[in-house]
Amino acid sequence: MQRTQSLYVLLVIVVHTALAVGYAVATPLWLNSDEPAHYNYVREIADGGALPLLRGPEDFDQTSLGQMVRSNFQGSPDVSHLRYESFQPPLYYLIGAALLELTGGSTWQQVLWLRLFNIVLGNVTLVVIYFIGRNLWPDKRDIAVGAVACVALIPGHVATTAQPRSDVLAELLFALVILLSLLRLDGLSERRFVVAGGILVGLGCLTRLSMYVAPAILLVADIGYQRKGRMALTRTLSVLSGILLIALAIAGWWFVRNALSYGMPDVLALGIRQQLADNELHTTYNLAGLRFFLVFTYKSFWGIFGWMGVQLDIRLYWLLGFLTSAIVAGCVLFVRQQAPALSQKQRMGLALLGLQLALVIATLVWYNLELRQPQGRFLYQASPAIGLLTYLGLREISSRPGTFGVLLIAGCAALAATGRGLRFAGLAVVLTAGLLALRAMAKERQAAVVFLVSFALMVGLNVWCIFGVILPAFG
Questions:
Q1: Hey, where are the domains in the chain?
Q2: Residue 88: is its pLDDT beyond 90?
Q3: In the structure, how many helices (H) and strands (E) does the chain have?
């Protein structure tokens, strides 16, 4: 059984790799958002052997950048002045610079190597998610495999994995924080927990600002463990202090460097980053602004490509919206029906995943309090929570063909009623027939069939995104 599950995970990773490489090769040079600035950060380290400094507004020329984006960077324009990512923590870019030193080649080849490196990081993250699922449901390993597949096939996530940016490394470190927290609940020794937690938090501080919330996850995990052992709160505070001290020992030099370069108290380089704000779009506090935030975040989560300008057919967003609604309904049903049967460890694990998702959403909202950046890719930092909750919801709702059918058929019918989506009426008929067939199957096979059909459809959607959306848009 374990070997079969491992083969399934390997299959998902192979499919994910093929799709991600497809996105990497199909997307021309510089046509991933912010790609020139991320590459210039890496290139400056490789050329000069020192970390770059963000100088100010001159590093973000919105006028010239806008012209290049509108022309799809035709004519090989000079992008060396786009340095606005130079405030970011340096770990990913240091690794990228070492990679460029090893590989060399033309600019396109160097960018492609960085894209492929991120795909490797993304695959490692999928393996970590699998072990998270196995840890929580060791007797139901389809949940672990399903969680991996749900993360691996989101078009926007696959495309982001194939871009040279620090998001993917941060996602991996955040997944390791969740796995470490679950191991603590299993009884991992305090010393190992503190050392491993300090290393992960320290590396996270050197990777991306969104990782600064990771200690909260570790704190809650240790509280859960200590409560099980009836130990004092002072013990947990001692554990947290040890984690933060180790993290400071690893990342402290970065804070000192920022303070010396940008002045106190700008240890996170946010003050110098704020100087670029005048060249960026700002959040509007009205109903239209709220609607834009919610709609664009949703669309970009599922997939908006290029410089956030290449969107899917609106009917696909509607269809994915109905699928999302079905998954959310499934999660609600799972909590109502399955919660009493869950072990204390599973409840605590789901609480940690929920906390991770809540913290990531809070980070996205905080970032958008001033600047208008409703990008769904920020949510991928919570990929373990997204994967497991998505599969649990899909698993629960697919075991109830009536509820599942009503949601999907209503969605297809609504699309058909627009007058431009008559083909979706046929899809509704096919889904109805499929659901009737599911009723005739044994209950344990219903979820498997629905999952396999969903897997095939999501693979097809990614292939269509590459050949039907990206290549025509940039070709």
A1: 2-398+441-474
A2: yes
A3: 20, 2
**Does the bond joining 215 to the residue before it have cis omega, within 30 degrees of 0?**
no
3-state SS assignment for residue 266: coil
Q: Which two tokens stand for residue 204?
A: 């996270």
For residues 294 and 300, what is the distance between their CA atoms, to the nearest angstrom? Answer: 10
Phi then psi for 311, rounded to 5 degrees?
A: -105, 165
Q: Give residue-wise pLDDT tens across range 218-265.
A: 999 998 887 655 556 778 888 999 999 999 999 999 999 999 988 888
Helix (H/G/I), strand (E/B), else coil: 399: coil
Question: d(Cα 333, Cα 341) in Å, to the nearest integer?
Answer: 13
Q: How far apart are CA 353 and CA 355, in angstroms?
A: 5
Strands 304-305 and 310-311: antiparallel
pLDDT band at 157 (very low <50, low <70, confident <90, very high): very high
Angle at 338 between CA 335 and CA 340, to 5 degrees: 100
Max Cα separation, the chain? 70
Rg (CA), the chain: 23
Q: Which of 333, 279, 313, 290 is nearest to 423 (CA)?
A: 313
**What is each CA distance from 395 to 241, 353, 411, 451, in whole angstroms?**
40, 18, 19, 8
Q: Is the dihedral of CA 124, 130, 134, 136 positive or negative?
A: positive
Cβ neighbours of residue 50 closer than 8 Å, sequence gap 6 or more: 44
DSSP assignment, residue 28? P
Query: With 0-12 CB in 10 A as exposed, 13-18 as middle and 19+ as buried, what is 292?
Result: middle
The amino acid that residue 470 corresponds to is I
Which residue type sits at 329?
Answer: A
Which position has the token pair 């005739």? 440
Task: Record the tokens describing residue 158, joined without a space.
Answer: 């696959």
Are 195 and 246 in contact by the 8 Å Cβ rule? The answer is yes
Tokens 């998954």 identify what position? 327
* Nearest in space to 36 (alpha carbons), one of 67, 58, 68: 68
The length of the chain in residues reads 475
Cα 116 from chain centre: 17
